[in-house]
């Protein structure tokens, strides 16, 4: 994270200098004004970050009290009902709040369909490389090598990065192959964490250099520029971050 932050700062400075005045995008204030027309109390700013606050609270409590377990889904719905109660109290009517309350379920449905599509795509990719014998060939070629862990980790990390760039959601690849990891790790004679940890971190990084990633398209449409222009800003820091993940994995994890 430290290296990423440093590279990000100097790369943006370089891009600003190279692009000159074109680096600065004018934002249409009238559109922003329309979005801010709805007046709500200032304390409403806490409601979107309630899940994060509850996660931190539960995490701290778990350090001192045993058997406290709470997953993100439960905490999200707790936060939703807190926000619902606050809105009902403010408007003094549950009926008026019902319509806006359904938006969370619409968003969940849309997000679920997108995630399922990506996971299915990742599963197809996994089945494909298995059917072609790519994994077996890789393992048989490095099984007797002292560097089996390194080659196996690099292979799965590279596949995750490629899938993340192409699909905009690298975690789908991670979830799709996670069941294979124990078997692959045992054949390679390494701990499964050696493969899974770099995969998970790279999966999160790779989406920032994908032209079809939701975050890239949202930022590009908000500032009114091409997604390619956003990718020019994110590519170098992200690639450096991926390299750092691999390097640190090779140094820290027990091969």
Q: Specify Rg, calculated over alpha carbons.
A: 23 Å
**Residue-averaged pLDDT:** 79
Helicity range of the residues? over 70%
- End-to-end separation in angstroms reads 23 Å
Q: What's the total count of β strands?
A: 0
SSE class: mainly alpha
Strand content: under 5%
Largest sheet: none
Unreliable residue stretches: none
Q: H/E series, N to C?
A: HHHHHHHHHHHHH
Shape descriptor reads globular
Oligomeric status:
single chain
Number of helices: 13
Which features does this protein show?
255 residues, mainly alpha, 13 helices, 74% helix, 0% strand
Structural notes for this entry:
The chain has 255 residues and is mainly alpha-helical. The protein is built from 13 helices and no strands. The longest helix has 29 residues, at 103-131. The mean pLDDT is 79.
What is the compact description of this entry?
The protein is mostly helical and 255 residues long. It has helices at residues 2-19, 29-35, 50-62, 72-91, 94-101, 103-131, 134-142, 148-167, 171-177, 181-188, 193-206, 214-223, 227-252.
């Amino acid at each position: 994270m430290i290296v990423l932050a440093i590279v990000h700062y100097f790369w943006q400075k370089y891009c600003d200098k190279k692009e000159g005045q074109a680096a600065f995008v004018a934002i249409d204030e009238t559109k922003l004004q329309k979005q801010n027309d709805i007046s709500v109390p200032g304390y409403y700013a806490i409601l979107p970050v309630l899940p994060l606050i509850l996660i931190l609270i539960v995490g701290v409590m778990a350090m001192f009290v045993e058997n406290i377990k709470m997953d993100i889904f439960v905490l999200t719905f707790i936060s939703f009902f807190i926000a619902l109660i606050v809105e009902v109290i403010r408007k003094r009517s549950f009926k008026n709040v019902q319509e806006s309350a359904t938006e969370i379920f619409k968003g969940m449905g849309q997000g679920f369909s997108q995630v399922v599509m990506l996971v299915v795509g990742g599963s197809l990719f996994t089945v494909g490389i298995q059917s072609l014998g790519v994994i077996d060939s890789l393992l048989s070629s490095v099984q007797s090598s002292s560097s089996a862990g390194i080659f196996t980790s690099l292979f799965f990390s590279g596949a995750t990065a490629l899938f993340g760039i192409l699909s905009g959601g690298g975690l789908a690849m991670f979830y799709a192959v996670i069941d294979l990891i124990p078997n692959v790790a045992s054949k390679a004679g390494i701990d499964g964490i050696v493969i899974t940890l770099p995969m998970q971190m790279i999966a999160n990084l790779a989406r920032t250099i994908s032209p079809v990633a939701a975050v890239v398209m949202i930022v590009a449409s908000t500032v009114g520029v091409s997604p390619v222009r956003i990718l020019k800003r994110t590519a170098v820091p992200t690639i450096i971050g991926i390299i750092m993940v691999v390097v640190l994995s090779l140094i820290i994890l027990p091969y």
